[in-house]
Amino acid sequence: MESIHPSIRPPGHARGGAAALTTTSLLERYELAIAGSTDGIWDWDMRTSEVFFSARWKAQLGYGPKELPNRFDTWLRLMHPDDIAGCMEKLDAYLEKGDGSFETELRMIHKDGSVRWFLARGVARRDDEGRPYRMAGSFADITARKKADEERDRFFDMTVDLLAIGGLGGNLVRVNPAWRKTLGWAEGQLVGRSLIDLVHDDDRQRLVDAMFDVSHAAPVESFEARFQRKNGSFAWLLLSATPTDEGNVYYAARDITERKATEEQLRKSEEHFRRLLDAAPVMIWMSGPTMSCTYVNIAWRAVTGRALADELGLGFLSQVHEDDRAARFANLDAAFKTRQAYRTEYRLRGADGAYRWILENGSPRFGAVQGVDGAGAGSRFDGFVASCVDITDQHRAREQALENSRAKAQFLANMSHEIRTPMNCVIGMTQLLRDTNLDTEQRHYVEAVSSCAETLLTLINDILDFSKIEAGRLDIETVDFDLRNAAEEVTELLAERAESRGVSLSVLFDPEVPPAVGGDPTRIRQVLTNLIGNAVKFTEKGGGVSVTARLVERGDRHHVVRFAVADTGIGIPEEAMPRLFHAFTQADGSTTRKYGGTGLGLAICKQLVNLMGGDVEVESKVGRGSTFSFTLRLEARATPPVTPLAQLEGMRVLCVDDREIDRAVIRGHLEQRGIVVTTAASGAEAVEILLAAHNREEPFQLVISDLTMPEMDGVELARHIRDIEEIAATPLVLVTSWTRRSHFARARVAGYARCITKPLRHRQLVEAIQIAVTPRATTAVLQATPRASTPSAKPALAAHVLLVEDNKVNQQVAMRMLRKLGCTVEVANDGAEALELVTSGAFEIVFMDCQMPRMDGYEASMAIRKTEGATRHTPIVAMTANAMKGDREKCLGAGMDDYIAKPIQRAELERALTNWVKRA
């Protein structure tokens, strides 16, 4: 055939009688047809060497519609030099053949210099003599596909696993280089060969059966067999075969020769292992998957005194002390479920009938089931293996140590009692002195003494609690209480401390947290007080402390609630974290440390939370603050239905506060009531939002504003609102951390209907909103909702009181406190005097010390109850420095009615008088 290369075919050379077609006529003819094509279109007139290239054809190479000349040599010029010869050879062969279509893959040079892969297809038109005179076709960019093919081939060649493609009969079509590395055969020696020819004679039939399954579209996984190497030896392969819809089979294999050799070595060493176990000095036993004992070594039999046959099966399990069986089997069950080792202690009866204490360390055994990758799946439970030590002597020593610990704890408790007695004098006298007329300097001294006394009392209480926990004498009680109220009471008590340091304090409960629960509110408040107090102490001025609670798990019988106390304080160094919850340690233990403390608080918190079925966690970064969180397992109680507040549902409220966390707290409280909340970070922004809402005819029905904000504080904001006619009638509620009357007065004058103090309590916030939006609220006198710590006047509690106390100073403290409460007081120096006075006179209530000479408080109370009989009952309230577990119960058991621990607080005296003195 005559060559059609343009360099040897002169322009204008015609073959046959076909009419010449110009480039212009071709463009007109195909313009509409090619406009919607996603591939490039070309049309070549072989008589003129003119080629029509569509705009898409040129665009694929980065050129515009008019940038390339419509000549055949344009194609050649843009074709990769390495592909020109091969492409032209294929083209000549197609034109000479005379039928079918032309197709080739080639590289082209993009305008930006990059190389792109294209699939060129075409069909030639021929004259009556079969000579081509015109050819047209498509041009598709296949660069992405070629790259994917290259990646696949690269993976195929580089993977360490043996990969192959074959037919359904087992013959190999393609293998990767890993076959040569593993078996030594070159690719040419394997392609066309069947896997069945390479398998070991003993494994051949299994492979034939597996290939039969593959030929019927059933994949084969984890097939182990030996395949012949080129040197005549055999390698163990773990083989998988997957059939495809195209009639091919994908093979993947891995060399497991070393693993099989290891298994063989393990099998051979089993007998040696048993002999070694018999020679071990510790007791060892093994069981099967049904917990039936399969082996005990010689050391075991030496301790128990029983023969091997007596221990096998369920023999030795029946010898475990009945009080220890449940715990021991619970440990075994947990180890089985978690696949972790376990450690347990129990008593085991020997042949002589005596019990020995055994320390057992064991773990479950799981057999390795091989996967495709050769790794053990560990799905077959084979039983337990454990080593044991006779710790009878050590157990006796430990019991003695525990007894010593209890003695130490009792010593600490006694010391605490001795310290609390004079502390009662110090704190009581300080309180009395603070209520007298003092000048500024004297009041400063009194406040300093009071602060130090409170700090010392906290230290004593920490030591006492720690001694109770260490001695195992601290119990957790379960009573019904409101969880939200308990937490909010703590934040109220600590609010003044936070305010004095310039630290914001907020509390927010997730609405899912049930308010009514069963638990120990006293201990929960103790934990929160410690964590929040620490957060406030370690947070600098301008920072914040937030307390959140969310429901982790809801159950029919129990709920799990997580508290988190987060601060923006100094943070904790990473190296201090491991010892954070250890007793008598602190993050900063240097002699120049800035913050004081006993180092007991966090240790006590952790142990209290553990006793309540939870745990404590901490996250911290130096300079960025800390978050202490703990979980509580609380008993479920029926939650009273929340009465819907129709007047608040859907109300539009604007919350104004420069602190994001405080805005989030208020939003959280209000959205629980169905209120629609919008927030503003400044007074100026709030005014803009109010006016925009008015213009939309969607005015806000209430504004809740913080008092202290930069640029425009809450009072200034109120004045701006009242000066703008369109929004002047909007009810206002003020939120503040301050309780000074001057602030309340400014707020009243500015137009606030209600003032509430931080940290916010949900109920107080809702009540303030209800009052503010009622018609009379806008003209009512401003009412402040003070914290619980704000002193308020109370009526005198007049009563005739007998005070029984042997310590003269404590007599003065209690007597003066009672008189300030409006009581008349007589004093008895011991229980004997008290008995005489109660018998001869009529007292409305008796405050009884417990430890006194001649006759103590317990004896006196029992004698009084015996003397009174069934006709009289004078209330007796214990007033004692004994604060250990059982002391309250001991007092009640002796006939007393109530219990107050020293140091005495006036509020506790008020409570007792209110509860026990009958009013006419």
Give a written overview of the molecule:
By secondary structure, the protein is an alpha/beta fold. The protein is built from 27 helices and 33 strands. Strands 16, 17, 18, 19, 20, 21 and 22 form a seven-stranded mixed sheet that branches. A six-stranded parallel sheet has the order 24-23-25-26-27-28, sandwiched between helices. Strands 2-1-5-4-3 form a five-stranded antiparallel sheet, sandwiched between helices. It is flat.
Fold blueprint:
Layout: H1 23-35, E1 40-45, E2 50-53, H2 55-59, H3 72-78, H4 81-97, E3 102-109, E4 115-126, E5 132-141, H5 143-158, E6 162-167, E7 172-175, H6 178-183, H7 187-190, H8 201-215, E8 220-228, E9 234-243, E10 248-255, H9 257-279, E11 283-287, E12 293-296, H10 298-304, H11 308-311, H12 325-338, E13 342-349, E14 355-367, E15 380-390, H13 392-434, H14 440-470, E16 479-482, H15 483-500, E17 504-509, E18 516-519, H16 521-537, E19 544-554, E20 558-567, H17 601-611, E21 616-621, E22 625-636, E23 652-656, H18 660-671, E24 676-680, H19 683-695, E25 702-706, H20 714-723, E26 732-736, H21 741-750, E27 754-757, H22 762-773, E28 783-785, E29 800-804, H23 808-820, E30 824-828, H24 831-840, E31 845-848, H25 857-868, E32 876-880, H26 887-893, E33 898-901, H27 906-916
Parallel strand pairs: 17-19, 23-24, 23-25, 25-26, 26-27, 27-28, 29-30, 29-31, 31-32, 32-33
Antiparallel strand pairs: 1-2, 1-5, 3-4, 4-5, 6-7, 6-10, 8-9, 9-10, 11-12, 11-15, 13-14, 14-15, 16-18, 18-22, 19-20, 20-22, 21-22
